[in-house]
Amino acid sequence: MHPLVVQYRAVVVKEVRQTARDRRVMALITLAPLMQLFLLGFAVNFDVRHVPTVVVDRDKTAESRDYARSQLAGDTLDLKAEVSDELAAEEALERGEASVALIFPRDFQKDLLRGEGAQVQALVDGSDPTRSSVAANAVAQYAVLRAMQMAQAQAQAQGETPPRSPVELVPRVLYNSELSTSVYVVPGIAAMLLLIVTTVIMAMGLSRERETGTLEQLQVTPLRPGILMAGKVTPFLLIGLVDVGLALSVGAWVFKVPLRGSLTLVAVATLFYLLSTLGVGLLIATVSRTQQQAFVGGFLFVLPAVLLSGVMSPIRAMPDWLAWLTYLNPVRYYVEVLRGALLKEAGLGDLWRQVLALAIFGFMMMAVASRRFQKTSA
Amino acid sequence: MASTRVNRRMGRILAMAGKEVLHIRRDIRTLYLALAMPVVMLVLFGFGISFDVDHLELAVVDQDRTDLSRELVRQVTASQEFVVVQDGTSPDEAVGALRKGTAMSVLLIKKGFAGDVKRGGAQVQLLVDGADGNSATQALAKAQALVEMAGRKLGGPVRVAAPPLEARVRTLFNPDARSAMFLVPGLAAYLLAIVAVLITALTVAREWERGSMEQLFATPVGRLEIVVGKLLPYLGIGLLQVLLVLTVGAWVFDVPVRGSLVALSLGSVLFLVGMLGQGLLISVVTRNQVVATQVATMTSVLPSMLLSGFIFPIENLPTPLKLISTLIPARYYVATLRGVLLRGNGLDVLWPQLVALALFAALMLVVATRRFQRRLD
Questions:
Q1: Interface ipTM
Q2: Are A261 and A346 in contact (CB under 8 A)?
Q3: pTM
Q4: A319 touches B: beta carbon within 8 Å
Q5: Residue A70 has pLDDT above 90, yes or no
Q6: Of A222, A262, B117, B266, which residue is least crowded by CB atoms under 10 Å?
């Protein structure tokens, strides 16, 4: 056997033994991502439902009561309490006990029946903008709906055909027709967990060897630095691949994430992605003296990388300068490959740009990291 | 007599704290990182996390090619909520763009559209990429409204009576609906949770790894004194971070401080003590830095993000997770911060949150100290 292969095998064996010796570490790199996937898959949900609502009915007529009942019958607003006046309603909002107050002014029924611009008022707690806009829309849309129903009833009573809109929109949703959040979020989470596990563990593992002095011992052996690094990376590469497999199985099984596209494409993209994340981990290890520094450095990379990837919030909602930064982020490309391949059955023809970007990142990171590594070992 | 004992005890605690300060000073890079990280993250998160999408990429397939159909497209894209990225393509190419991700919706205008408009009752189709459910829902609602409005204009002047009914919505606390207002308080709690738990977990685990913890046990310093002394300097760093984050929040994102400062400081101290105690407990149990970071990530970093109401409202969580969230101190701290900063609450409203934070802090300190003792034997 070629002496380099012998060296490489020796390092891999040493690295595997060292990692496998601490069972807790093994458990953490395999089980922890799965637990997190469960947690995240269930917690991440953008639906706004059951917003607690108080009602102030100053009219106390059949119309106002019926209006409130039908409005609160929907899924969005839930009746929390009836309060006597606006002041009490505002207080409930201030205390955070309710997020919406629905107010019927006096003469609501009279104005409504005369067709004289009857008003429903609503106070909305705007602290959470997503939630408040959904709640405000629910109130506004219900008023429009109610007005339309009244107009139609009136037209029918007078024997006319009710007016209809000249252009109608017929929507059709492709790929995730139930608009389920978890189907979209789970691939993103898989990418994020992979990043956390590989970057941080790689960076800390290497700094640990430096801290305890075993790295020096390795450096006085005839091992070549390049071989040493390749041997160190290999086990984590395999662990990462296994983690992706586990995450996708759980995603398919628990969260019904479809596995539509080519799994080979996913595997190749994962390999390039892991090269970049492990490369970053190595790079961080070469500039840190302690495990603590390596960890903080890892975190400083991981948090913005997750944030600017489209995993948490859509890239198109970012300001332009931030959206541009996402092009420098391998996580972005990997998430696009995962979502495209899994949800939309996109193939290499659709995703070659992303795969190419991942490959460039992966090899560049490894090249830079190994140069730094050789310099610090020399 | 008693006072000298107290004095000695204070002296030993201060000595421990002094030793810890030396550690921190020797590793000044970590301190800089610990202070810079929350600020950088705050700015990135504050600008980066937003769920309001506009400039939705639209591919247009116009098979009618009349003035009316072109006018419809113009009307729909006039407000910049939709931006045309592809025009005049075949339906297949447009669906290809959806698959590639270059477009997220397709407006399909069939032949004969103009004639149908004049007769009343024309239809246009909208294909939406549903992969991102949240964006898709918004795209559907926006397109519905835009087409409805455009339709009225195309169909000629329709007699529209004044609406007999109107909803008037007034938004309190954050009337401009800025995401940053909502996220900054939650973010502050999240970043503090990360830094407090992780840094303590790491520093103490390091002492176990290097064996200097045994040396400490050989000195006459008691375990409670070790715990309190070790935590004091980090409490100081944590409070500095709170100030920094709130200042940046006020300065960059105009997040106000409307409510009681007493509640704010009390909540911050209690939360920090709880998180530092948790970090200590983790390090006492794991005694290994790599394991400590992973355990800290799972028990504090992730729950503080997901189960605290920071991004995802607690009432949307499935029941088991909702129950778990009552054990997460970040939940109470996020509520305290939002109450003070956005709603102007005081102690009278926020006391239950503060009690919960105090309970958690006390529990963590007691358990961490007890675990310390067992290891001594």
A1: 0.71
A2: yes
A3: 0.77
A4: yes
A5: no
A6: A222
